[in-house]
## 1
Amino acid sequence: MVSLDDVSRTSEPVRGRRRWTTRPRRAVGVLTALVAFAAGGGLGAAVTADRGGSAPAAAATGEARSLTDALRGSRGAARAGHVPDSLAPGTAAPTTGAGADGVPPTPTTAPPAGDAADPDLTEADLASGLLAAGVPESASGDLVVVPGSDPGPGVGDVLTVRVEVEEGLAVDPEAFAAFVMTTLNDPRGWGGDGSLSFARTDRPADLRVVLASPTLVDRMCAPLQTRGQVSCGRGGHATLNFRRWVEAVEDYGTDRDSYRRYLVNHEVGHLLGHPHATCPGSGRRAPVMQQQSYGVGACTPNPWPFPGRDG
C-alpha cells in the first residue's frame, strides 16, 4: 500500500464553511522548511533537475532574471516526494501561449455551477470544469468538498481521493471532479501498471485534489514559494493553481486539456512519493515528473506516467 502523509486538521473543510488560517505552526513549519531546503536547495531556489548555484532574489519592482536562467541556477533535483513546483524570488512565471500534493467532517454543498459558461471556452475547457476564462487572484478562501463517491476500477491498492474546489471560482465542481478521476484512472495514469487505482469519496481520504485561486495556493503550499503561479503536491494534498488550469503553459500550445492532465498526474505523483525527473534526451517524451510547467526543453510534452498504454 502506498504510504501517504496525514492531512493537518487546519486544512480540512469542516461543518459549514471554514476559512484558512494563517496562524504559524512553528515546529511543523521548521520541519517542512528543512525538508524543502534539502530537496530543492533552499526556499529561494526553484526546484529543478539542473545543478548549479542558488538563484538570487530580484527587486520587488520586477527586475527578475528569466525563468530559464533561474532554473539553470538552482541546486538540484529533489530526492523525495511532496515537492512543489516552487519559484525562486524574482523569477518569471511560466509563460502561456496565445491559445493556451477523529470525527469525519461533514461535507458541505459544492459551489453552484452558476450561469451559462463563457462562449469562448472550448469543449475541452468545459469538460475540465471551467465556466469562464478569467483568473481572479483570490476567491473566498473557503474549500468546499465536491459531494459524491465512485469506487473506480478497484484494481490493485485502492487509494481514496477527495476533490475540493475553492468557493467563488468559476468552476463546475462535478465536471472538475470527473476530470480528475478519469485522469487518475486512465490506463496511462499512475495505475497503468495495475498496482493501484483511485476511488472518489467525499469523506476523509488518502489524498485530496484541490483547485484553488493563486492566493490560496500560496497559503496551502507555504513555506514553499509558488508566488501565485504554480502548484504543489505536499502534506496529502495536490493543490492545483487555477491560473495554470485556465491558461496552461506555452510548451503545450493550445492543448490545454493535456496540460491539465499533466498537472493532476504530476502533483499527485509527488503524493505517491515520486521526485522530479529530467528530460531523457532530445525528441523523447518528457517524464510526467519533469517540471514541464517551466518548459520541456529538448523533450516533447507528455502528461502521462505510462504514455505507451492505450488511452
Note: The mean pLDDT is 74.
## 2
Amino acid sequence: MSEPLISVIIPTYNYDNYIKQAIDSILAQTYPKEKIEIIVVDDGSTDNTYAVLQELINEKAIQYYYQENKGKANATYNAIQKCNGKYIFNLDADDYFLQDKITEYVKVFEENDEIVHVAAPAKILFEETQFIKTEILPKDILGKVIDGKWLLHRFYNDNMLFGGGTTYAARSSALKTIKIPSGVDMYIDEFLILTILPLGKSFFFDHPLSVWRIHKYNFSISAVVKENQIKNKSRLINSSSAVLDYLQKHHFEKSILKIYQIQDLTRRMLYKELQNDKKLSDIFNYSITVFFKIRPNWRLIKKYNLLNRLIPLSIIHFIKRNKPNEVDKEVLS
C-alpha cells in the first residue's frame, strides 16, 4: 500500500485539558509519522492551550495557528486551506484516534479514486463514569463503497446523520473545492457531510476507530442552564439558516433542500418553545408553510416529529412538569 502524506486538522477552543491526548493519539498511529502533518487552528482560546502545546510547537511536531475567535466553521476552513496531505482527517480537540485509524482509512482511499469520504462508528466515552459504548450505525451502509448522493438521501429521509466530527476524513482534492461560510458555525460537522457526499463515493467501516468523549464541557451537555440554552440555541438557529442559504445558492437537489427547509423551520419552533414564546400564530404559520407549501409525505412527518410542533405551549408545560428532567434534543439533530 502506498503511504501518501496525510493531514490531520484540529480546530480547538479552550480544550487545554484534552488536546494533548488528541495529538498524542496521532503520534501513536501505526501510519508513518513522517507522512502525517498535524495542523492545529486555535480559535481564540483563553485557557492554557498554547502553553500545553508549546513543546510540540518548538519541536515542529505540529503546526499551530492562533486566530481571533470566529467560530468552529471558520477555524475548520482555515485549517483545511493549510493542508498539504492527499487526505484530510478531522479530529475534535476533546476526542482521540485509535492507533490503526489512519492506516485503515488510507488503505480504503487508495483502493478507489472515486471515494471522497471515509468514516466509521465511534466509541463513545462518558468521562464522568468512564462508561464506553459503541455508536450504532445502520448495517446496510457498513463495509462497502456507497454512492454519496444515495447515502445523503438515506440519511435525510430517515432523519439521521453519521460520519462527521472526529470520524470524518475526506479526499483533499474534493474537500478543498468547498467554500465553508463562517455562518455555518455550530453545524460545521453536518455541513461537511452535506457538501462532500455529492462529490463521489463514501465508505463506512463496521468497527470503531475513534473515541468521542462526552464531558461537562460538550455543548450538548453544558447547555443545561436555560440562559445558556437560549444563547447557544440562538447560535444553532443562525447556523442552520447559513447551511440552508448555502444549499439554496448552490442548487442542491430539491428533495434534500425540501427536508432541510423543514429542519430549519422546526428548529425555529423548538427555539420559540425554549423561550416560552411560541404563539398560536407561530403554529398557524408553521402549519401553512410545512404542510401546505413544502408538503412532506407522511413518512417524513413521522420521522421528523412534525406534528409535535403543533402542540401549544400550555400542553408542553404540562408534559414537562410531569417529566422535569426531559430535555428536548431535537434542536440538535
Note: Residues 44 and 69 are 4 Å apart (CA to CA).
## 3
Amino acid sequence: MVALGAFPAAKLGALLLRQVSKPIANFVKERAKQSPVFRSYVCMPPAQFYNWCEVKMKMYFMNLGTAGKVKPLSETMAIELGSNLLGEGIIFVVAAALLLFEYNRQVRKEQAKEDIRLQEQEDLTNAIRDLDLMTEQHNAELRRLTYLVDDLISKVNSKSYSGPDTTSETPKSSSSKVDTKRQEPELKKQISNDINENLLFKSIKMLIQSIQQV
C-alpha cells in the first residue's frame, strides 16, 4: 500500500516539476538565441556533458564496448536540452532550498517547545520548593500554638480543681456563715467559667491536631 501510494505521488511531483520548469526553459531558450555568450558557455555545455554521460552509460549497460568519441549534439538540440536541464535544475535548487528552510524552521520550533517545557519544569520545581518551605513554617507555628494551648489548659486545670482551703478554721459566728453563703454563687460562677475555658482550650487543641493531620 505504501509503494502504490508513493508511486503516483512521485509521478505527480515529477509532472509538476516539469510543468513549472517549462517557463524557465523557454526563457533560457530565448536568452540563448539572443546571446552567443550565454548560448556557448551556459546553455550548451551542460547539454553536451549530459549527452556524453548518457551515451557512455548506454554502451556500458548494453555491453557494446566503449566509444572512442561521442558525437556532440547539434546546436539546436543542445540549446533545447540545455534549456530543459537548466529549468529543471533551477526548480530543483529552489525546492531543495525550501525543504532546507522548512527543516530548519521545524528544528527551531521543536527547540522552542523544549525550552518552554524545561522552563515549566523549573517553575514547577521552584513552586514545590516554596510549598515545602511554607509547610515547614506552618508546622512550626502549629507546634508553637499547641504548646501555648497545653500550657493554658494546665493552668486552668490547676486553677479550677485546686478546691477550697481545708486548713482554714471553720467560722463559728453567724456573720461568717452569711458571708460564705453569699460567696457561693460567685464561686460557682467562677468554677463554671473555668470549666468553659478548659473546654474551649481542649476544642482548640483538637482543631489544631486535626489541621496537622490534614
Note: Residues 1-5, 166-174 have pLDDT under 50 and may be disordered.
## 4
Amino acid sequence: MAFPRLATSNLPTATSEETKNTMSPARGAPMKNQILQKLRAPEFVHAWQFWFEKGQSTASAVKAESADDYASHVKPLGDDDGKIRTIRDYFQITNNFSLSENLKARGDSVHMFHLGVKPLWEDPRNARGGAYYFRVSKDRAEQFWEQVCLMAVGDVLQAAVATNRNSFNDEITGVTYSIRWNAVQIAIWNRDADNEAGIQRLLETVLEELSEEVKPRRKEEYWYKAHKAHKGFVGAVGN
C-alpha cells in the first residue's frame, strides 16, 4: 500500500521574521546573556546617592561648628557608598534601613542626592539654590518620603522645573528627610532659587502626585526658602 506524500515544492519561502521566530533558543553563554539582559532593571536618568546625618545634641553645638565640622557628620549610607542607579538599588537600601529605628533625635537625617552632589549648602551645585520644605506629621512622614523619593528618581520633579538652560538640566539636586521636635521636615533641593516659575511648578507637581492620605492639610505646612536666607549660610559658604 502506497502512502501519500506531502507536497512541499510549491510552498512560499519563509520570511526573515518567520525564520527568526522559529529559530532554536540561544544556549550556553548567549542564553545567559539574553536572560540577564531581560532581568536587568533600566538605569535612572541620573545616578543618586544616599547619605546619613547624625543630628547634634544641642543648638549651641551646631552654632559652634565650622562648615568642615558639620560636613563630617554627613556620611554615605549603605553598600557601595549608598550609590543607586536602578530601582533595585533604591529598594536594596530603603528596605534595609528603618527610618523609625535609625532616626530618633532632632536633626537626624537621611538625604538622597545626585551622585557627585553633597547635601550641603556649600556644594557648588547647591550654593545658588534653595529648597521646598514640607512639615509632615510623623505618622505620615515615611509614606510621604517614599513618594517624594520615587518622584525624584523617576525624574518627575526634574520635569516640573525643567528650563531651556542646558546648564540646569539637573536642577533638582536632592531630597532630605529630617527629624524635628514634633514632626518630620522633608525638603526638595533645587539649584536655582531665582527660577520662580519652575519652583511654582515643582510645588504643583508634588501636590498633584502625592496620594490623598499624605497631602498637606494646610498651606502653612509647606514653604520655599533660598539657602542664602538661612542664618548659617555665610559661615558655611562664605561671601
Note: The radius of gyration is 25 Å.
